[in-house]
Specification:
Distance between the termini: 34 Å
Structural class: mainly alpha
Number of strands: 2
Helix content: over 70%
Strand order of the largest sheet: 1-2
Radius of gyration: 15 Å
Strand content: under 5%
Largest sheet: 2 strands, antiparallel
Low-confidence stretches: 5-15
Number of helices: 5
Mean pLDDT: 81
Order of helices and strands: HHEHHEH
């Protein structure tokens, strides 16, 4: 029993499963959104707090889609369908977050950029 608890604790620490890891993942996700808004025309986020709120909403919607439909909405998680769902989540997030504006093309290119960055720095927010 102790071996199993030790392994679970080690796995949680290695994946950032604690509260600090949770906060770090959202901060990194917000930075990724800011970088994406800087790179992609038609994708605008004004300020770090706006990006943090957008990251929270995107993560929540992704979680709900995963729970309800048993579907991974990561940009490269399910091929083209995951990419399209990811872009749709990004597009519809603008309606819930002030100071965020995304065009359809911006959402598509943004999902691509976020997917590429997520391959290098896995934050698992999409």
């Amino acid at each position: 029993m102790d071996d199993e608890n030790t392994r679970n604790d080690e796995a949680r620490r290695s994946t950032g499963g604690g509260a600090i890891g949770f906060i770090i993942r959202f901060v990194v996700a917000a930075v990724v959104l800011l970088v994406t808004s800087w790179l992609v025309p038609g994708f605008s986020i004004r300020g770090f707090w706006t990006a943090l709120i957008a990251a929270l909403i995107i993560s929540a919607v992704d979680y709900l889609i995963g729970r309800i439909f048993n579907f991974d909405a990561a940009p490269f998680g399910r091929g083209v369908s995951g990419f399209i769902v990811s872009a749709a989540i990004i597009y519809f997030t603008q309606f819930f977050v002030a100071n965020m504006a995304v065009s359809i093309w911006g959402a598509l290119i943004g999902a691509l950029i976020i997917g590429l960055i997520d391959m290098l720095l896995p934050t698992r927010f999409m």
